[in-house]
Amino acid sequence: MAEDSGTPITRNKVSDARADAIRSAVRAATSMPTPDRAARLATPDDAEAFHAFLSDPKVYAPIYTLPRPLTVESVRAFIEAHEREREKGVGLMFLNLDATGRIVGYSDFSFWPQWAAGELGGAVHPDMQSKGRGQMGAAMSFGWMFDALGLDLIVETAALDNIRTAKLLDYLGFVRKGEITSTRPDGSTRASLVWEITKEEWAAKHQNSSC
């Protein structure tokens, strides 16, 4: 995770004790809530199955953080990088599984403990898109980030033409903050819109909501 990628735009420094508590919560996380209640940390042994999931253009095309070229070895390195980030308390990656153990999605987290902030990326299987599962899963994940990990702020980015994500974030109450240039792992760049939401804003919108 880049320490200064241009996000979050809002940066309110917290105490060292708060930052350390967030790092500890990240290191301790072994699962997260999902619609199927089946998510676990990705391991290098998942590289082949995860690569197969990611190889669908409907999955990988909108996601700038994925390694390129996308190979089994680059996916394994991607997983191993997240394991190192978890040890530092600044990143996590979970695989979402169906009842048969098939990978049907993944969640990629980056954290800035010094600002009590985090970002969620990831994707769901194309068979499960446009069925409300993405919205439900995202809402569950954002709530978990605030409640279980102790964040004050969640920031999200998306390509300018990613209408699906833009509609989702607007619907969930995120506030558009502007535009940044995002850098891919291979050094190439893209223009990205940025959204943010605070813990208080999230609670006000969702405390009486089922999403």
Can you walk through the features of this model?
With 211 residues, the protein is an alpha+beta fold. Helices cover 35% and strands 26% of the residues. The protein contains seven helices and seven strands, in the order αβαααβββαβαββα. The chain has helices at 16-28, 47-54, 57-60, 72-88, 133-147, 163-171, 199-206, and strands at residues 39-41, 91-97, 103-112, 117-124, 153-159, 175-183, 189-198. Strands 1-2-3-4-5-7-6 form a seven-stranded mixed β-sheet, sandwiched between helices. The two termini are 29 Å apart. 33% of the residues are buried. Keywords: Acyltransferase, Transferase. Its EC number is 2.3.-.-. This is GNAT family N-acetyltransferase. Residues 37-200 form the N-acetyltransferase domain. One of its GO terms (molecular function) is acyltransferase activity.
Order of helical and strand elements: HEHHHEEEHEHEEH
* Spatial shape: globular
Q: Between the first and last Cα atoms, what is the distance in angstroms? A: 29 Å
Provide the low-confidence segments as ranges. none
Q: Helix count, per DSSP?
A: 7
Strand content of the residues, in percent? 25-35%
Biggest sheet, spatial arrangement of strands: 1-2-3-4-5-7-6
Helicity range of the residues? Answer: 25-40%
Radius of gyration, in Å, reads 16 Å
Structural class: alpha+beta
How much is the average pLDDT?
Answer: 90
| Total number of strands | 7
Protein name: GNAT family N-acetyltransferase
Keywords: Acyltransferase, Transferase
Enzyme class: transferase
EC number: 2.3.-.-
